[in-house]
Automatic annotation (TrEMBL):
<protein>
    <submittedName>
        <fullName>Transcriptional regulator with XRE-family HTH domain</fullName>
    </submittedName>
</protein>
<dbReference type="InterPro" id="IPR001387">
    <property type="entry name" value="Cro/C1-type_HTH"/>
</dbReference>
<feature type="domain" description="DUF5753">
    <location>
        <begin position="92"/>
        <end position="264"/>
    </location>
</feature>
<dbReference type="GO" id="GO:0003677">
    <property type="term" value="F:DNA binding"/>
</dbReference>
<dbReference type="InterPro" id="IPR043917">
    <property type="entry name" value="DUF5753"/>
</dbReference>
<dbReference type="InterPro" id="IPR010982">
    <property type="entry name" value="Lambda_DNA-bd_dom_sf"/>
</dbReference>
<dbReference type="Pfam" id="PF19054">
    <property type="entry name" value="DUF5753"/>
</dbReference>
Length: 271
């Protein structure tokens, strides 16, 4: 089954745009290379748009509409798709994308990221929110972790933690000891690195909020956290903004060795 057959135009506006672009191009007997030259991009960009791997950019939609005299067809479709927050562009939820990802990068301000939480730590976090069924919430979180860590070829994972994560008590000292030990154990895995941004770094771009970057099917996605539920970000320009933020945090994060020493030192405080 090819990537075009996986698209669902009835469910996703972005899928509809991908299918319609191929239809319009084929009808005009325009090759992918010719269309790429028309919009000033590489042939692979056209292929990725038509296969649903990346969304069409508004500037490209405008060029195509003018060249093919489409009376703003793609311009309107792209604008409408961008406004439809409920259209997840075949993405499903965050857990689904984490399970499929080949690379995961996370930054967390105040808590251990969900993918690295122990059951007791997760239960404590859920207990202070509006979660009604704690058992189910913890079970779901553990399943999310298993989907990432237990697969045959696990993703490359990079985690930046704010120093507050180590010093902010979540539950009892026993819960914190178990959680920090978990961080140390995960950090020993060859495909995982955990680094800490020290208190001395002061205020920095990371305080704009926690974030997650994922590489899924050769496309880059971002996840922006929010009080009432975060959202997946697919627009390349918006994703790039998250990548720049993540890189800047990395510039000030301590190396893996010193970070590990900080986690070990924090562990000793929970007696």
């Amino acid at each position: 089954m090819n990537s075009q057959e996986l698209l669902d135009p009835e469910r996703s506006m972005w899928d509809f745009i991908a299918v319609e672009l191929r239809r319009q191009r084929t009808m005009r007997r325009v090759s992918g290379a010719q269309l790429a030259r028309m919009i000033g991009r590489d042939r692979s960009i056209v292929s990725r748009i038509e296969s649903g791997k990346i969304p069409m950019q508004l500037e490209h939609a405008e060029i195509i509409d003018r060249a093919w005299d489409l009376n703003f067809l793609f311009t309107r479709l792209v604008r409408f798709a961008k406004e439809r927050k409920d259209d997840e562009w075949r993405l499903g939820d965050l857990a689904e994308q984490e399970a499929r990802a080949t690379r995961i990068r996370m930054w967390e301000i105040g808590l251990v990221p969900g993918l690295l939480q122990t059951p007791a730590y997760a239960r404590t976090v859920f207990s202070v929110g509006l979660v009604r069924d704690l058992d189910k919430a913890v079970e779901t979180r553990l399943a999310r972790q298993a989907a990432v860590f237990d697969k045959e070829n696990p993703a490359e994972i990079s985690v930046y933690l704010n120093w507050v994560v180590l010093m902010q008590p979540v539950g009892s000292p026993e819960v914190m000891r178990e959680q920090l030990t978990r961080l140390l154990d995960v950090g020993r895995l060859s495909h995982v690195n955990v680094r800490v941004v020290e208190r001395e770094a002061g205020v920095h771009v990371g305080y704009d909020g926690s974030l997650e970057l994922l590489t899924v099917d050769a496309r880059e996605l971002a996840y922006a956290d929010a009080p009432h539920g975060g959202g997946l970000v697919i627009d390349p320009k918006e994703v790039e903004d998250f990548q720049v933020r993540y890189d800047r945090i990395g510039h000030i994060a301590a190396p893996v060795g010193p970070s590990r020493a900080m986690i070990e030192a924090a562990l000793e405080t929970y007696t």
